[in-house]
Design goal:
The protein is mainly alpha-helical. The chain folds into two domains: 41 residues, no CATH class; 221 residues, MetI-like fold (Orthogonal Bundle), CATH 1.10.3720. 73% of the residues lie in helices and 1% in strands. It is built from 13 helices and two strands, in the order H-E-E-H-H-H-H-H-H-H-H-H-H-H-H. A two-stranded antiparallel ribbon has the order 1-2. A hairpin with a 2-residue loop joins strand 1 and strand 2. The protein is flat.
Length: 281
Amino acid sequence: MNTRLLPYVLILPVTLFLCVFFVYPFILVAQEAFVADGALSLDNFRRVFGHWKFPLSLRNTLLLAAAVVPVQLGLALLMATMVNRMGRGRDLVLYIWTIPLGISDLAAGIIWLAIFEQSGFLNSMLHGLGLIDRPVNFLSYQHPGIVFLAIMLAEIWRATAIMLVILVAGIGLIPKEYYEAAEVFGATPWKRFLRITLPLLRPSLQTALVLRVILAFEVFAVVAALGGTLFPVLMGQTFVYQFELLDRGAAAAIALVILGISIGFTLVILRVLRVPKGARI
């Protein structure tokens, strides 16, 4: 086989996969969103944007992402640094920390629902400590802050491991000679982290943040389990339009809005954490 054709042959399966499972469905969704009554139209977007729940869903989605992703990034960096400094027991600790990766979104929501519901662990603990006389319905319209907190905690617990795995792999690729040289010259652990770990971890940080931000805008099952209709998000509205209202055009319009927001934030992350040309580990 001609060596010039070999790279194209190797990427052919991936290209076909993307065309069949991404490009073609995207074309169908775009057609549903921009076509009404057989003609190009923005009616679906006008109907979606004009609904009173859209700005609320957009605000909740952005607020949740802004609250969850930075906390997850900090935790993942801390946990990854700890894991890479460990000797014995490193694999066991990493395995325990990544257990939530094997739990579905809905299952994670139900687990945290068992903590915050009226007959859950939190009420039992507070009653046992004598802080409350009767069970409190924390996940109600009377406690919107607690509803948000419950969703936030469930998302942090469920998805931090996604970033952790990527950052552990990235830190593992940094040559130990850099740290040894910095230690010889008297650099403190904090300076070694700022001057060595963070700069050389940029490619991994890019990947982890892009993946996590995209998933943050697609949050649905955890919100449905803990907040229901009390905390509408964009993906939840997509579900409502598609399966409850049977309005495929509006559902497609919101899906494209989510895609546009994800692409926008991805470009920002790639710009902020861009790796200089010629940079090597």
